[in-house]
Design brief:
Largest sheet: 6 strands, parallel
Distance between the termini: 58 Å
Radius of gyration: 25 Å
Helix content: 40-55%
CATH class of the largest domain: Alpha Beta
Structural class: alpha/beta
CATH superfamily of the largest domain: Response regulator
Order of helices and strands: EHEHEHEHEHEHHHHH
């Protein structure tokens, strides 16, 4: 089996050099470059091909965002494994969407990192448990944000106006010729869109923030 050629990009020299020494003594791995600045990688990969780039997220003034896309544009086969002390939920999602093949925390055991390198080199995804939680959280937050930004459906608008009129669930159901359980379900949708838990909070948000859209007639089903 061919050796996996690795490039390390980390602006902490002690970590970069220490990681390089560790990987150089690992059978099946070959370190072909160690850099503090991602810009140096782009200019040298044409002369020194690599299979996997181990990339820190926070590189001082040269953050990793944007680097992966440029790297992939030049060589779509190269894999990027984020090796970081930690990233926010949003950053984790951004890096994976940009084309990273995984996230491995610096505090992980060296054997885990070596396993991760082999996984991503073989077109697999590697995510530490914290990274998995970050992705789930970030995607949930994005979905919630997108949902809140959408206009109300006609049914949601009708129910909201019933609430603003002070009607009970039963009265709203009667007016809309729907079951009371269906009205309760729509109210839960409204709570989720507004990010609230009570009717009074929903009314306040609807009036203060969404009078120009939520409270206008909407024919969308």
């Amino acid at each position: 089996m061919c050796e996996i050629r690795i490039v390390i990009v980390d602006d902490h020299s002690l970590f970069r050099e220490g990681l390089g020494r560790l990987l150089e003594t690992t059978p099946g791995l070959s370190v072909v470059g160690k850099y503090a600045n991602p810009d140096q990688v782009i200019s040298t990969l044409s002369r020194t091909p690599a299979d996997v780039v181990l990339l820190d997220y926070d590189l001082g003034d040269n953050r990793a965002s944007g680097f992966i896309a440029e790297l992939k544009a030049r060589d779509h086969k190269i894999k990027v494994l984020m090796v970081t002390a930690g990233m926010s939920d949003t950053a984790t999602l951004q890096m994976m969407e940009a084309g990273a093949s995984g996230v491995c925390l610096k505090q992980s055991h060296p054997d885990r990192l070596i396993e991760a390198i082999h996984k991503v080199a073989n077109n697999e995804i590697w995510l530490d448990s914290d990274a998995v939680r970050s992705l789930v959280s970030a995607r949930s937050a994005r979905t919630e944000q997108m949902e809140r930004g959408r206009p109300l459906t006609k049914r949601q608008g009708d129910v909201l106006r019933g609430i603003l009129d002070g009607l009970t669930n039963k009265e709203i159901a009667w007016n809309l010729k729907a079951s009371e359980s269906a009205i309760k379900a729509v109210i839960q949708e409204l709570f989720q869109k507004a990010g609230v838990r009570t009717r009074s909070q929903l009314v306040r948000i609807a009036i203060e923030r969404h009078a120009s859209d939520w409270l206008q007639p909407n024919q969308e089903e």
